[in-house]
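Blinded run. Sample ID left blank on purpose so nobody reads anything into the name before looking at the predicted structure. Input follows.
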Amino acid sequence: MKMKLLVLALLMLPLGVIKASAENDYVGSDQCFSCHQEIYSQWLATGHPWKLRKVDKARYAKIPLPPGYSWDDITYVIGGAIKKARFIDKEGYIVTAAKDGSEAKTQYNLEDGSWSFYHKGEKKPYACGPCHMTNYSKEGNQDNMEGMVGTWSEDGIGCEECHGPGMNHVREPSKETIKIDTSSEACGKCHQRGGMGPEPPAKGGFIRHHEQINELKAGVHKDMGCVDCHNPHQRAILVKDNCLECHEEIGKSYAMTIHGKQGTRCVECHMPKATKSAISVASYTGDVRTHLFKINTAADANMFKEVEDNGKKSTFAQGFVTVEYSCLSCHGGRDKEWASKNAMNYHDQK
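Blinded prediction complete.
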């Protein structure tokens, strides 16, 4: 009789909950919707859930495919929501060539519809854990595909990647039964490259992508947290416009400048797009805003430094942006000397 009651109870649970019992109590993000509809909808728009998605979802996103490929040749799409899309083949490897093996650009860039090379011609395993999925384990191969390094409970960054397994919270909804971590390190687990230290790696005249924690710690706002400006459930572009909370007097003087009068925001100069994720729009304009904030107005200042370690040279951003990124990204017809002269003490100029 007890066994029959147990079977009946299990049958009454949602399928996702039954699956989670065998996967460390991860229930899946869909279980959160019934109580957190607004937050769930905001999360969908962030791009986090689309860091990795199976072909049966991605094929309806109107993303073009690399040369020679059809959707029947693809198992997963990496990204494809905001910046770029890459593709995974039937063996779990990232597509790096045309289907016939010839040279081809296989990364699709959403902003301008262009294509870029990605590890051209290499046999490239999908080893992007733990930042593109939820509850990552480096053991095994997802879907038993040899190119997929590791296993996970949910594709993309689900609710439980930040809040922890949700089984207890589903059973007893309260703040005590779910993890709430607002530290910058919680975000920095993925928004970093090469660790969380204050050394943002750079390449080709731009800071490399997903390094916000490195930039933050290298800059003048290193004591601030991500959630001071960002709602983690919303898209990053919906950041709070709260510079004047700390910089009220500077804001008053800036309002009298030509840029202030025309409504140019603080971020246009102090958070220029000195970081590149998919494309560079111009010589000094990437596609991601930096989190360094401080502007070094000297005409001879170099935003980057080169470090040699055991014969290997690496490039890193320093703790400031320079005038070619802050000024010349808009004033393209000018030079650094002009920008330096006009940028000094800019907030006090009338």
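Unblinding after everyone has recorded impressions. Residues 11-52+128-180 form one domain.
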